[in-house]
């Protein structure tokens, strides 16, 4: 069995350079070195082989699979890379609109419709250029060969924001085919508690962009009708637990206070009234961490690990991890394996320390776990060793 010692020591310097306390440096785009990263390692519960499938990614953000086996990976600058049989084809999706590429803003998440085989819709979250700056948009399109066709913006968040901070954004579908997406609060402490704007919220829409009649604030004067929850800072990870009909999200705290939350209709998750984090200069944001009418996280991280994408392990290929969350860590450069006892946090294991700034972790239709990283620019596949 090959040891991880050599490879981790090679990347340790990279990890030190790009780990930061500040949210802006956490999201800066490091230069991608050419690193080959293949090894086998013992974790607490199983042995895994880490197989590097591709190097040279820049700012990868989301990934999804098509029924024909192709894999799509978004790059924040506005590209969608096409992979087949775990190899980059050298091809990209053509015909995409321009994105508002500014800091953390750009082309973000991607997923396919639950009934893709019937309707062919692919959904993306991206920062759309609009008068006054950028706006998180949920859009959909179909593929005609490698070309995007029938492109539609379904919902565009408001107000426009002239800056590149905290755009979110993840997309999931529930068992009813309803779509949820996250939207960051743009770095402003005035937005997340304000129901009249879209920022610092999780939203719920139908697959065509219309608003479900049972959304919690459809009858609230001046409220954005798509809001599902509010008081969220910058949620960059979200999953739907099909078996239990639950939604979970992770969001960035400031200096400390990253959160794992159970997402429930109409609830207020507290930012910035309550938080376990501090201002980046070390001063308090608030003197309270709890308040009636505001939700407590199921777990929080101090110091911040810079939580990003997340997944729920459902595959029988990893029986020892089944039911666990895998959470991407940007600043701390690992994958966090989180065990839950029902809806309560139980324990955590750090996997693949210093592999790079992990942006997303996903489970493929055939049950394997993949991760994408910044800094080291990797697409890796975690293969269980029996």
Q: How would you describe this structure in keywords?
A:
386 residues; mainly beta; 41% strand; five-stranded antiparallel β-sheet; Neuraminidase; 6% helix; single chain; 25 strands
Structural summary, described in words:
The protein is mainly β. The chain has a single domain, classed as TolB, C-terminal domain (Neuraminidase, 6 Propeller), CATH 2.120.10.30. It contains three helices and 25 strands. It has a five-stranded antiparallel sheet. Strands 3-4-5-6 form a four-stranded antiparallel sheet, with no helix packed on it. Strands 7-8-9-10 form a four-stranded antiparallel sheet, with no helix packed on it. Strand 5 and strand 6 form a beta hairpin. The radius of gyration is 19 Å and the shape is globular. It starts with a helix and ends with a strand.
Brief summary of the model shown:
With 386 residues, the chain is mainly beta. Helices cover 6% and strands 41% of the residues.
């Amino acid at each position: 069995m090959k040891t991880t010692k050599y490879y981790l020591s090679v990347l340790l310097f990279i990890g030190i350079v790009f780990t930061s306390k500040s949210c802006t440096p956490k999201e800066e785009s490091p230069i991608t070195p050419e690193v080959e990263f293949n090894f086998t390692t013992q974790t607490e519960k199983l042995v895994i082989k880490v197989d590097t499938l591709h190097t040279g990614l820049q700012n990868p953000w989301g990934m999804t699979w098509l029924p024909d086996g192709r894999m799509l990976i978004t790059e924040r600058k506005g590209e969608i890379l096409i992979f087949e049989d775990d190899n980059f084809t050298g091809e990209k999706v053509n015909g995409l609109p321009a994105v508002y590429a500014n800091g953390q803003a750009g082309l973000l998440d991607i997923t396919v419709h639950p009934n893709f085989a019937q309707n062919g819709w692919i959904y993306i979250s991206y920062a759309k250029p609009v008068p006054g700056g950028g706006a998180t948009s949920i859009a959909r399109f179909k593929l005609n060969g490698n070309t995007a066709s029938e492109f539609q913006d379904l919902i565009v968040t408001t107000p426009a924001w002239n800056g590149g901070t905290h755009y979110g954004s993840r997309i999931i579908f529930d068992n009813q085919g309803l779509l949820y997406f996250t939207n960051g609060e743009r770095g402003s402490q005035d937005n997340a508690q304000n129901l009249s704007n879209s920022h610092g919220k999780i939203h719920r829409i139908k697959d065509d962009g219309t608003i479900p009649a049972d959304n919690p604030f459809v009858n609230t004067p001046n409220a954005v009708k798509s809001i599902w929850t509010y008081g969220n800072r910058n949620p960059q990870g979200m999953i739907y637990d099909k078996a239990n009909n639950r939604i979970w999200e992770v969001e960035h705290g400031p200096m400390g206070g990253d959160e794992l939350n159970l997402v429930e209709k109409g609830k207020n998750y507290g930012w910035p009234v309550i938080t376990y984090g501090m201002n980046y200069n070390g001063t308090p944001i608030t003197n309270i961490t709890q308040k009636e009418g505001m939700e407590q996280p199921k777990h929080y991280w101090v110091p911040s690990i810079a939580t990003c994408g997340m997944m729920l392990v459902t595959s029988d290929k990893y029986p020892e991890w089944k039911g666990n969350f895998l959470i991407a860590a940007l600043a701390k450069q690992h994958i966090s394996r989180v065990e839950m006892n029902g809806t309560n946090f139980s324990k955590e294991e750090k996997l693949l320390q210093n592999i790079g700034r992990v942006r997303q972790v996903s489970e493929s239709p055939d049950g394997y776990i993949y991760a994408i990283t910044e800094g080291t620019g990797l697409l890796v596949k975690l293969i269980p060793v029996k």
